[in-house]
Amino acid sequence: MSKLIAVTGKGGVGKTTVSALLIKNLIASGKKPILAIDADPNSCLDAALGVKVANTVGRAREEVRSVVTGGTNASLSKHEMLQLKIEEALVDAENFDLIAMGRPEGAGCYCYANDVLKSVIKELSAQYPYVVLDNEAGLENLSRRIVQKVDLMTLISDASNAGLQTLLRLYELANEMEMHYDKLALVVNRVRNGKLPDRMEEIQKTTRADIVIGLSNDDTIARFAEESRPFLDIPEDNPVYQKVQELAAAL
Ligand SMILES: Nc1ncnc2c1ncn2[C@@H]1O[C@H](COP(=O)(O)OP(=O)(O)OP(=O)(O)O)[C@@H](O)[C@H]1O
Ligand SMILES: [Mg+2]
Questions:
Q1: Does the chain have fewer CB atoms within 10 Å around its N or its C terminus?
Q2: Ligand 1, closest atom to CA 137?
Q3: What confidence tens digit (pLDDT) does each residue in 188-201 have?
Q4: How do residues 38-62 score in pLDDT, each as one tens digit?
Q5: Nearest-CA residue for atom 2 of ligand 1
Q6: 8 A C-beta contact, residue 14 and residue 190
Q7: Domains of the chain by residue range
Q8: What pTM did the predictor assign?
Q9: Whose atoms come closest to the Cα of 157: which ligand?
Q10: Cα gap 142→51, rounded to integer Å
């Protein structure tokens, strides 16, 4: 059985950074191979991991649809074709593979994209002991029910009061949607003086979070981002990386 870690939160709070650092830590602990799933249409987990995505599940889906509606290739079922295309889209790196979901279907209906997403996650994940899912920003990904059952649900927020309010909304939504998770982690990114906001104690009680961590605003992280260097190369003694290790340990 693979372990699934989902990382979610509103825009720009550090989901991709934390996902990449988590992957770095899983690799360092020998918890590999890992499947990294970039569920953000503006995919950038590849850059954070130092690889390049050439194709996405979204594009694979479009290609299959045009073949099917064009009436060619009767020997393969739609599902088989999709599987092939998705295998082609998989980026094969040394300790992990990466798949980018790309754009969901046009405005209105997400049903088919959702089904593809779910079946991809299910079939692919089964082949890896660890799966890290970097979600797109906001609540939509939860309401589209991309994932139903995760081992470690990680909700990220900045330290602002508005950010923490969104964190609580995400938590409530996840429960309303009856998403199942074994453990809940709350991450407050860019905390002042390395200190969690006072409200976190109450929020931990409300959410019954298993783990709460604060990550400081870090120069090295900012520099790596500026220079487009992969976060996998962040030094072992980096304080943010050290803290992220507590997340992986909660698995
Ligand atoms: N603790 C930190 N210290 C310094 N910079 C950080 C920290 N965390 C994140 N950043 C920077 O903030 C920016 C946004 O982070 P990131 O891309 O991880 O957020 P995100 O939640 O994935 O954003 P999006 O919603 O666009 O996918 C990046 O440039 C990243 O390098
Ligand atoms: Mg991101």
A1: N
A2: 25
A3: 999 998 899 999 99
A4: 988 887 999 999 999 999 988 887 8
A5: 217
A6: yes
A7: 3-249
A8: 0.93
A9: 1
A10: 27
